[in-house]
Amino acid sequence: ALVTAEINTLLNRAPGGRFEPTDEFTYIQWSYDTEVILKETIKKHPELVAGRLRLTVAGKKTALAKAETVPNPRVTLGTKIVAGKSVLITGLGFPLPLWYRNQGEIDEAKAEEEGATAEVEVLEKEISLELYRNLTEMDNAAAQVNLLKTSVLEVTELLRIAGLQYQQGKSDFLTYLGSLVTFRSKKLDYYEAVYDYYARQTEVKKYLDFQTESE
Q1: Cα first-last separation, the chain
Q2: Residue 163 and residue 165: Cα distance in Å, rounded?
Q3: Can you tell me the distance from the alpha carbon of 176 to that of 91, in angstroms, rounded to the nearest whole number?
C-alpha cells in the first residue's frame, strides 16, 4: 500500500487509487495473402486505373485511324442510250489510290498506344515493388512488436519483484522507482512499435478499399 501511495503521488494521482502498470495495448497481427493484395492493388491503384484508361483511348484512336484508310465510296448517277431510249444508270466508285491513305495518323496513333502500354507496364512493376517493400517493412515491424512485448513482460515481472522487495524493506524507494522507469521506457518502445506496425499496415491497405467502375 505504501509503495502504491508513493507512486500515485509522483504521478499526480490520488494516493489511495489503484496503480496498474501492466495494462496492455491492443495488438493483433494481420494475416494476409500476398497474391490477393497484389492483385487488388494492381486493379484499384488510381495511377494504374488512369493509365489503363489512357491505353483504351489510344487503342480506339489507332482503330479509328486504320478504319480511315479505306476510301469512302462515291455513288454516281448518269444516263445511257439503250435501243434509242435514255436509261438512268448508277455507279459506285472509289478514289485512287486505295492504299497508304492516312498513314501518318496511323503511325502517330500507334506510337501513342505503344507509349501508353509501356507506361502501364512500368507502373505495374513500380507499384508491385513498392507493395513488396511495404509488406516486408510491415512484417519487420510485427517482429519488433513481438520482441518488445516479450521485453515488457520481463520488466513487468521485475517491477513486481522490486515492489515486493521495497515493501519488505529489502530495497529502497529509488531502486523501485528505477524499475518503474525501466518498465515505462520499455512500454513506450512497445507502443511506438505497435504504432509503426499499424502505420505500415495502413500503407499496404490504402488501395484495397477503392472501388472501380468495372466492379
Answers
A1: 63
A2: 5
A3: 109
